[in-house]
């Protein structure tokens, strides 16, 4: 079918809005009519070539919409279902079979090669193939193709344009807390970097019963949102060394920290803001090749650092939990989402990159 998509013709260049051809859904595939797609910082990283993805291509990986057609063998979804799209995993490796698809060794190939596992393209134009299947969707478009396992049904009364980021940014931040840290009620947490990922971590820490949820960023414009998402304290990280600012509030440091800014310096600050056996989760995505420095004494005391991709979540289990949090007012997405027509996608990405808007969402 003919669809409208934002096509990246060359790395680092603006998208062009084009009419292209998307395959009909094959066996196991699902066609989604996109209602809204969140802009994630990794879209910008891929567009700028900091992370590799072939061109010409269609990016976008926080899509939500309605099922428009299903391929042969799809039984868990039907035309008209409201859905959030998420990332691909193989479903057959030990990690997938253990309920940990985020650790699937085949995930990178399935999400970032620009084609189906059999090498065929889902998108085409008169000149040939366009690389699609980006994070199993390529959803900066009017329609996107995925597979049934990566598409999560959500209730019809949930505004679709608010929940596309549950498939990436929100599950990354909330999952870092709920699936990795699992903080005890009454414990303390620090979240560094208050974009959508960090705010989701704030919300999850508050929902976990943390007695203090410290939220730090260099941009004070984020503090109102942080309080709305459940922060008990906000810290202007530009006001001095973060470990000292944290200890002015909690003299021994926090029990746990989440680094969601992507800055190597912020990781060290978060790590050193925990007490001597505190735990830090890294979710902020830095360009490939980025190195981190830690003082050996800060490690020797017993602190631990772990990374968590996609919040170590199992999307079909975890996204419904995020929907429940949204319903309870614990994820007030309406406070951070700003919508843009697909034709204004360059402005949406620019506003994300500058920090002017927490979660731009493009509407085809
Ligand atoms: Zn993302
Ligand atoms: Zn797997």
Automatic annotation (TrEMBL):
Required co-factors: Zn(2+)
CDD domains assigned to the protein according to its UniProt record, in alphabetical order: benzyl_alcohol_DH
GO cellular-component term (any): cytosol
A single MF term (Gene Ontology): aryl-alcohol dehydrogenase (NAD+) activity
Pfam family, one: ADH_N
Domain Enoyl reductase (ER): 12-363
Enzyme Commission identifier(s): 1.1.1.90
Biological process annotations from GO: formaldehyde catabolic process
Protein name: Aryl-alcohol dehydrogenase
Organism: Frankia canadensis
Lineage of producing organism: Bacteria, Bacillati, Actinomycetota, Actinomycetes, Frankiales
């Amino acid at each position: 079918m003919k669809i409208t998509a934002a096509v990246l013709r060359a790395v680092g260049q603006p998208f062009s809005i084009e009419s292209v051809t998307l395959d009909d859904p094959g066996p196991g595939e699902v066609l989604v009519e996109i209602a809204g797609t969140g802009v994630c910082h990794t879209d910008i990283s891929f567009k700028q070539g900091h992370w590799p993805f072939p061109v010409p291509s269609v990016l976008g990986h926080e899509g939500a919409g309605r099922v428009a057609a299903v391929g042969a063998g799809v039984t868990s979804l039907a035309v008209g279902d409201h859905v959030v799209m998420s990332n691909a995993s193989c479903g057959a490796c030990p990690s997938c079979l253990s309920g940990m698809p985020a650790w699937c060794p085949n995930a990178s190939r399935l999400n970032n090669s620009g084609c189906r596992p059999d090498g065929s393209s889902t998108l085409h134009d008169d000149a040939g193939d366009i690389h699609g299947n980006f994070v199993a969707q390529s959803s900066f478009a009017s329609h996107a193709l995925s597979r049934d396992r990566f598409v999560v049904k959500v209730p019809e009364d949930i505004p679709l344009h608010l929940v596309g980021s549950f498939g990436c940014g929100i599950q990354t931040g909330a999952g870092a807390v709920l699936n990795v840290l699992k903080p005890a009620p009454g414990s303390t947490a620090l979240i560094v970097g208050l974009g959508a990922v960090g705010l989701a971590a704030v919300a999850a820490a508050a929902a976990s019963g943390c007695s203090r949820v410290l939220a730090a960023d260099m941009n004070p414009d984020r503090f109102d949102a942080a309080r709305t998402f459940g922060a008990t304290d906000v810290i202007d990280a530009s006001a001095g060394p973060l470990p000292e600012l944290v200890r002015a509030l909690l003299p021994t440091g926090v029990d746990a920290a989440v680094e969601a800014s992507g800055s190597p310096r912020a990781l060290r600050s978060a790590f050193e803001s925990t007490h001597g056996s505190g735990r830090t989760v890294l979710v902020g995505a830095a360009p490939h090749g980025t190195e981190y420095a830690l003082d050996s004494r800060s490690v020797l005391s017993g602190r631990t650092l772990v990374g968590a991709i996609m919040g170590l979540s199992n999307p079909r289990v975890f996204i419904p939990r995020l929907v429940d949090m949204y319903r309870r007012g614990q994820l007030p997405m309406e406070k951070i989402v700003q919508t843009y027509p697909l034709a204004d996608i360059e402005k949406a990405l620019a506003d994300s990159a500058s920090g002017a808007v927490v979660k731009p969402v493009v509407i085809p």
